[in-house]
Design brief:
82% helix; mainly alpha; 199 residues; 2 domains
Length: 199
């Protein structure tokens, strides 16, 4: 593994225009339309594989950036952007083709929209804030990813498990999505109140 990562870093030094973590983030963005096309063409297995590859790039870009001190301002922007594009696109497309309920997609998209809107409000009010994700947010992201995988896997192993188990994932993911949304809303309110108190 160390040798593999070193090889990637060497490639980044040979082609310094974009380092490996940033390249992997861009690759994840490029894969979004590919996965959508697979899903719309009912190529669920191919979509599952492509989504898995996208997930691997997410793991490696963070691993390489931390292990080899390759964190950049560009990477700090495109990495979460790639994650949001991938998850949002997956939920919208899966809802359109009927593999997950539309209400769950609305919750997922609405939460991200509210968080983005909150960050914009804080920025416009010149309020300093910490971008560190809450623990419940990390759990929510994992659940959202697992829900996508479960929805796709069910197309192949549906005869082995009851659909009720898939529904359970839907509701658990929905609960954490709502809870994490409220956590960020309360955090934003605290930032605003703190700024008002010191002004």
């Amino acid at each position: 593994m160390k040798l593999f990562l070193s090889g990637l870093i060497y490639a980044a030094e040979v082609f310094p225009i974009m380092n490996i973590p940033n390249f992997l983030s861009v690759l994840r963005i490029v894969m979004v339309p590919v996965i959508i096309i697979f899903l719309l063409q009912d190529m669920h297995f191919e979509a599952l594989i492509a989504f898995g590859i996208a997930g691997v790039t997410d793991v490696f870009d963070g691993l390489i950036a931390r292990a080899f001190n390759r964190k950049t301002a560009v990477g700090a922007f495109i990495d979460p952007l790639a994650d949001k594009l991938l998850l949002s696109s997956m939920y919208i497309t899966l809802a359109v083709i009927g593999l997950i309920p539309s209400w769950l997609t609305v919750l997922v998209i609405s939460r991200d929209f509210i968080i983005t809107l909150g960050i914009l409000v804080l920025y416009m009010m010149s309020i300093k804030y910490e971008m560190k994700p809450a623990f419940i947010s990390k759990v929510t992201t994992v659940l959202q990813i697992v829900t996508i995988l479960f929805a796709l896997l069910y197309q192949f192993i549906g005869h082995l498990i009851a659909y009720n188990w898939v529904v359970v994932f839907f509701w658990v993911t929905a609960a954490f999505t709502i809870a994490s949304g409220f956590v960020y809303i309360s955090r934003g309110i605290r930032y605003i109140n703190s700024a008002s108190a010191t002004s």
